[in-house]
């Protein structure tokens, strides 16, 4: 089984994440895409993050009706902050018959050489890179494990959605209805 891994804070998950994940699962050679909820990104401040279980629950609500997508809380039990190479290594040990592919946005490429053991990621895993608006194209030279995928570009951010909620503006169509209801009932991001 070839599994694409889309890591993220998903704070909250939105339609951009879902369209991308579904596109990768149905328009590439991947069998499925798992959305890996990261408790803490080493490059982002953690003071704006909802509790990891709220974010995990929203992802579960968002993908409940899509058999092409899965959700993973694998990093919840790992040391924080989470490093992609450690998660990939752990998953490969847990599921030795699976092939794991890292899915990342083109905007991450300039930072990629700063990732912990990024050379090992490139040596042992494929990386599927999707376009992001405003990204400076950075190619990783002589890296046959990197594939650029022409996925739709959606300029939607969780930061924008959180601001809409604080400003008491509608988030309809930006997040799935189930996620919007969960945010409303739990009074999140206010």
UniProtKB/TrEMBL annotation:
CDD domains listed in its UniProt record: NMNAT
GO process terms (BP): NAD+ biosynthetic process
Listed EC numbers: 2.7.7.18
Reactions it catalyzes: nicotinate beta-D-ribonucleotide + ATP + H(+) = deamido-NAD(+) + diphosphate
Entry superkingdom: Bacteria
Keyword Phosphoprotein annotated: no
Domain called Cytidyltransferase-like: residue spans: 6-163
The keyword Nucleotidyltransferase appears for this protein: yes
Keywords: ATP-binding, NAD, Nucleotide-binding, Nucleotidyltransferase, Pyridine nucleotide biosynthesis, Transferase
Pathway assignment: Cofactor biosynthesis; NAD(+) biosynthesis; deamido-NAD(+) from nicotinate D-ribonucleotide: step 1/1
One MF annotation (Gene Ontology) recorded for this entry: nicotinate-nucleotide adenylyltransferase activity
Family: Belongs to the NadD family.
Protein's recorded name: Probable nicotinate-nucleotide adenylyltransferase
